[in-house]
Amino acid sequence: MVREFGMSPTLGPVGFASGEPMYLGGEQVRSRPYAEATQRVIDEEVAKLLREAEQRATATLTEHRLELDRLTQVLLERETIDGSDVEQILGRTPATTKS
Questions:
Q1: What span, in angstroms and rounded, lies between the C-alpha atoms of 82 and 87?
Q2: Alpha-carbon gap, residue 30 to 25, rounded angstroms
Q3: Which of 2, 4, 49, 85 is 20 to 30 A from residue 21's alpha carbon, by CA?
């Protein structure tokens, strides 16, 4: 997201695509087309995005802790539930289908 598509306020709308496919576990053999300092900024931006995502996830889980506990209890009792059960636990009206 940061390196390939330039989605970073710090780096601006500039992508630093490698031009070669990256495979799991593979290493890029040739040198990067940008400076080590740029790589450092990319790494910092990625780390910042990950920290922000972790904070949002933790906040969401904390905010909905009671519902998660209720959902856990129902799962322990019944082992399986469907969407209407989740909607009920969340206190929402299940969506109706229109014919």
A1: 9
A2: 16
A3: 49
Name the residue among 45, 39, 89 with its Cα closest to residue 66. Answer: 89
Co-location of 56 and 97 in the same domain: no
Query: DSSP assignment of 32-77, as one string?
Result: PSS-HHHHHHHHHHHHHHHHHHHHHHHHHHHHTHHHHHHHHHHHHH
Q: Is the pLDDT of residue 99 over 60?
A: no
Give this prediction's pTM. Answer: 0.64
pLDDT digits over 17-56, tens only? 766 655 555 555 556 778 889 899 999 999 999 999 999 9
Domain that holds residue 77: 64-99
Domain count, the chain: 2
| Structural domain includes residue 52 | yes
